[in-house]
Amino acid sequence: MRSSVTFITRLFNAVLKLSEPLPDVRDDSMRLQAQSIAVIALFIIFVFMPLSLIMPTLTNGLSLTSVVMRILAVVSAAGIFILARRGYVRASADALIGIGYGLLWGMAVFADNTYIGTLRTLDLFVIITLLSTVVMPIRRAMVWWMLSFPLLLALPLLRPEVPIRLIYGGTILFHLAAGGTAIIVVGLLRRSERLLRTATLAKESELNTLINHLPDYVVRMDTSFRYLFVNRGVETLLKRPVDHLIGRRPDEVISGDEAMQKAIAQWRAAVDEAIRTGTAQQVEIRVLLGEEALWFDLICIPEFNAQGKVDAVLTTTRDTTERRENEEALKASRTLIQRIADTAPYMMYVFNTRKPTGEGMEFVNRALEEFVGCAPGEGLKLDDKDLIARVHPEDQQKLSEYMMARVRQTDGTSEMIEVRMRRHDEMWRWVRFWVFNFDDPQLKTGRIMGMIVDVTEERRMRDALIEQERERTRAEAERQLNHLKTQMMIRIADQFRNPLAAIQSAGEMLERYYDRMSQAQRSERFEQIKTQVTQIAGLLDNMGAVLRQPESQPDREQQPVRLFQLGAELFNKMRERYGDCHRVQFICDRNAQALISQEALRLILTHLLDNAFLYTPAGGEVTLEIRASEVELALIVRDTGIGIEEVDGMRIFDPFYRGSNVDERPGLGLGLSIVRNQVLAHSGFIQLVSDPKIGTTVTVRLPSQRVPESKISGV
Known about the structure:
The chain has helices spanning 2-19, 28-58, 64-85, 89-109, 114-135, 138-153, 155-158, 164-212, 232-238, 250-253, 258-277, 321-343, 366-372, 384-389, 393-408, 456-513, 519-547, 563-578, 598-614, 671-681, 709-712; strands at residues 217-222, 227-230, 281-289, 292-304, 310-319, 347-352, 363-364, 416-422, 428-438, 447-454, 559-562, 583-587, 593-596, 621-628, 632-639, 685-691, 695-703.
């Protein structure tokens, strides 16, 4: 028994679920009517028509015409079911009535035996019963079914030729099915109505709660401009309870001056216009509450009844005082910014790249309008293409590329560019552009601010200053060159004076006392002359090496060089020239050899050692270190001499330049210049580290190769 009840319950639930209208049918009464029609259509398809086909088949058979009519009725009922679920309730009811009567008269015309006539009578009552649930209220349909049921029971008395058991069975089965369906529909409708009422009340309560908590003021008024509903915000604003407001007009509740009455009249006019046109109306009013002036934005929305007439107006009111004050402040700020920009010497504009081309600028100051020759306010019609068109043809491509690069750069920084731009008087002026990108992807603004400055006079002054600086630099260079020439001539004279004096002295001695001198004395004088001539020749060679450096080609012929022998030879020459007053140290492998230009190496070492011995006081130390590897030759000369002052460090390699602390020591200031030229000519590297308190260290690195075995044996 319980399983049967469960099965029937599930079956009814399935029928209810199957007959439920689609979600787009939102009217509640239409959904109930549509669901009842869908249930009846299901009953015709799955109960009535199958039985009307099975029962005649069990007795005398059924004609082909009757079968076709019943099949058409099933198809039509299926169409009615689809229409009902889609919400076409009226069309479904009319179609069901038409199908029922067409089925009735079709079976009456094509009846071919007695049973069909009896069944036709049964069809009549069943169809009337079914149609009554559609075209009548549920209770009236139930009454009609209860009245027709006894008549159907009396049919066997009217038609005795039909088997009584079959008639009773079919009649009771049909009417039980119809009655049961009507009872189920009534129960479902009542249950749906109860659930709908509960949901409606909950929705209304939720809506009232929501409306009461809205920041807006919500008022519902009838067509005579009387309050039907007010939310809690209106009570708080007017400081009146709801009972004091409902049923009364605003002018009866709110008392005020002429401005208040004018605001109420504007509200009344918007409500009347919404009632007349049936469309929402919006108006902004100003209300004085005490000494405070408030601005409100009102939207009046008409409400329609079932006949399509407006019977109420819903008014939502929002306090826009703060927004109005912000707009006024923003307007004042914009006016102030415009005035500041108009008084600025810069030309300024703001352009929105996200707007369609041709919509113009968002901001243009007066300076830019005067430059292009626009009337006040006409500059807003310009765009970036108009500005580019005024640029000199030779500068347009440069400016376009610059502006495109600035549009893509969103870090807020800016770079400037100078171009020629045509003024309104057709004069070409040099202007400086600054473009700032204020693009905001979230706000989708894409604003570009440009600043333009006329720098024509600035460029003229700058060119004049540059030319003046060039003249000053040229004069200073000429003065320094003259000073250098003077100093050079003085140094050359000083350097040549002593050797020439010595030669002159030795010559005079030979000329006067030649006969009295011994052979040794004569040789000594001749050797003295020879030494001084060699010194003069060395000075001339050094000067020639510096003066001929741009045109001369270095000796790049590489040959095997025994480094230890070369270093020892140069050390001995220095000791012969400067005496044994220095402590010397020579660090080098006795078998060290390198494949390098011997002339360049000798020249570099000679000048480095000469400087070390010359500027190191007696008792000081001079060190020469030579290191040879497979790819490089390192020459390191250290001394404990007077060093080089920091102020001289940048010019110590210049020709004829001598340090500020050299005192009266001889020299032309060419040694380090010759060394540097030789090192650079052989793709080498030179480093000088000096401290007046410690001494000087010069490191030279020259590219070199290991000497092959075949060449070592021949050295």
